[in-house]
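Researcher: Last one for today. Full complex below.
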Amino acid sequence: MKQTETKDHAGLAEDFIKDEERVNWHDGALWYIREKRDIASKQIPEWEALREAASQIKNNVISNLHDYLLQFEANLTKNGVKVHWANNADEHNAIVYSILKAKGITEMVKSKSMLTEECHLNEYLEERGIGVINSDLGEYIQQLDNEPPSHIVLPCIHKRKEEIGELFHEHLGTEKGLSDPTLLTRVARKHLRNVFLTRRGALTGVNFAVAETGEYVVCTNEGNADMGAHLSEVQIASMGLEKIIPQKKHLSVFLRLLARSATGQPITIYSSHYKKPREGQEMHLILVDAGRTRQLGRTDFRNSLKCIKCGGCMNTCPVYRKSGGLSYHNTISGPIGAILAPNLDMKKHADLPYASTLCGSCSNVCPVKINIHEQLYKWRQVIVKEGYAANTKALGMKAMAWTLASPEKFSTAGKAGRWFLHNIPFVVNNKFNPWYKQREMPEGPKESFAEWYAKNEK
Amino acid sequence: MTTREQILEAVLKNQPESMPLPDIGMFKGGDDDTVRKYIDIFKTIGGAAYLVDDLEVVKSMVAEQFDTTKRIATTLPEMQDIAELIAPAIDPHLYEDVELAIIRGHFSVAENGAVWLTEEVMGQRIIPYICQHLAVVLTAESIVPTLHEAYERIGLGDYGFGGFIGGPSKTADIEQALVLGAHGPLTMTVYIIR
Amino acid sequence: MFVTGYIMTVGLFIPCYVNQFYPDAAKATLQLLQKLGVEVVYPAKQTCCGQPMANSGFAHLTSDCDALFIQNFAEFDYIVAPSASCVLHVKDHLHSAENEGKAEGIRGKIYELVEFLTDVLKIEKLDAVFPHKVGIHHSCHGLRGLYLSQMTELNAAPFSKPQQLLNMVSGLEQVSLDRPDECCGFGGTFCVAEEAVSVKMGKDRVTDHSKNGAEYITSSDLSCLMHLEGILHRNKSKVKVVHIAEILNATV
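Model: Here's the assembly. Have a good evening.
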């Protein structure tokens, strides 16, 4: 994988923004999806009530997860699916490897699964001689470029078609300069069809797992999950514990919300309900913790586990649109990534809750009503208390708090902004201040309002 | 302690006090003109839908709309004169060159264009995904307004595999340009029998 | 409209940076409230609501700031400030270990200027004149925190309190924007910590206003306007920023 982890979000975003034409395109493309989401959601009069119902169903899930997991497991077993449990990425990867190895499988096809990205499954298997091909077109393109997905729904949204054409030229031998999206898609279709037809092992993610019936639902637009699964001898599904929903009928609520929130489509083209293995096929399901039980124990952050991975918060987030998903240096980027990631590694992801203006648009589009921007604020408090804020920032804040808590210090701090010009981070008056790089300072007036008031109004 | 026990114990320890499930019984669609709504929505998602009198009409439309010199597979016995019957037990890979699959849909959903199919009507699970073109036949009275009625109808479901399919496979992964025919069918046609 | 006799006493909270950099907006707030028959008192010992610390993750350092705020403002009928962001911070985060009752009282009676005019004074007309094309910048804290307007993300009936007030100003023409409630990228310390993103967001907001013909960008938050003004000045734009109090207080 390309290494992008030496810089923090601000640094990586700055690099992304240098190509302003690309940023404008990226921003516009994602805003267009936000607009499609608005149109789709406004065609459903009961939209807000559906969000509330989805939120309540997920609240019920996270508060009864133990029993639902047992019920789901029992039903899977009854349906003939082999159930595995994994504490972490390594255990998950080892389970996948052992399943494939037992069948002598050396090549696997995988549909979109953020969990396996999080676990770095591909690298793990490749190190052990098992090839993996990502079959979602966007993920396939990212794999060719040896780069992680930048968006959970639109993995290569940061790339221009000419760059994709170049990758296809290099890896698939297409004609140089070919950049027409339809033609490129046809090339990938042909190439991947051969992959589907020759892979004996297929892995998919899971969108919803129904405790009541032991079936799981996988949603795609491309049909890649089904092409892989129905042609395989061994079908593996990897899911985070939080993907459970209680009853079959709850799918109606979630499937009405998911695609409309994600892309503005009324439903994904394929919503596949996998219940029992095909005659002669093996079906495995891996339940993965990887930090989820820890997040479940964090009162302020547990409801981040309600996420159904629609990506709506990314599309609406102006910071995401201007900075690109890779600047979040985490598998799940954007606002939801910024509240999930600190749970996994607080030190490494201490910058992410700060990669937001706390504008709150994310919470409003969230189909399961996660209070994302409030959690960003709360993570900042935790990160500071745990000692992961930069020291200089901590000292400056203490000085500011000390001054602002005392009216005497505040007023003797100087006339008309002198204190401010030295102490408030956004107006510190020197050429090293980032404010001044592309913005003028506010003009200091002759007198402050307090000074004027003392003269004129008392 | 096994991994399973460790995880279940951690979940039990960390999960909050139980919160109730909401009643979702109030969500339902209107019954007015679901057929027209279905056809309109299905067109907007890139599909083609036709209201027809009977299977004979379907047959003649298929002959007009598709290349019948190529391989056509079906689960409908009535279509046997223009298509081969799908065999449930053979290797699914053998269907890789199916040009057109004609199958029956249980019902469809007006609000989103999706058709509900189970492996029983697919013949083989792979059929509606591997074919180049997909044609589904269903009855007008089977169309339901929303997914709420749809799941009411499906119930717990006695199937090994089932799925909603709502149009030709698509992708917009390259610069958000919509391309129909990603990995699954390039087109999807629904024939609705009055 | 009330013309004689004071109906209430309002404590005027002028956020620290407004006091220092935008005294005209503060004066306009004071004069506008006075014109509407409200007795206004500006407690001299006020400093800041503590938001810059809290939003950076240092909420635990704000207790002295909170205590001072309570000392300054607990006794008024209402507290009004020309800043949605600071008002929201007080509403959401002001607490007191010693006197939580007073803190709660303040959280319930603090208003941003626009909502004070529309919801408490319920004004229906104004004698203001501002013959210009104006674009409204909805600050996120005003919009999604104080619900000054309906949020475009929601499937809910539209309304806009600032628009309602600007409709009372003669000569003023409101311009419509491509993205009516997109964040400007100020975000407190975000504006320096994430300088590149902040400026890009600000530039794009400015472009939306200018290409739709705005001569002025107005808002109920000067922090957003300070950021946008910094960008406008650097790029020598003719578009100006003005706090909504100054428009509502403007006469020929």
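Strands of chain A lie at 82-86, 107-110, 131-134, 201-204, 208-210, 215-220, 234-240, 244-245, 270-274, 282-288. Chain A touches chain B through 94 residues (CB under 8 Å).
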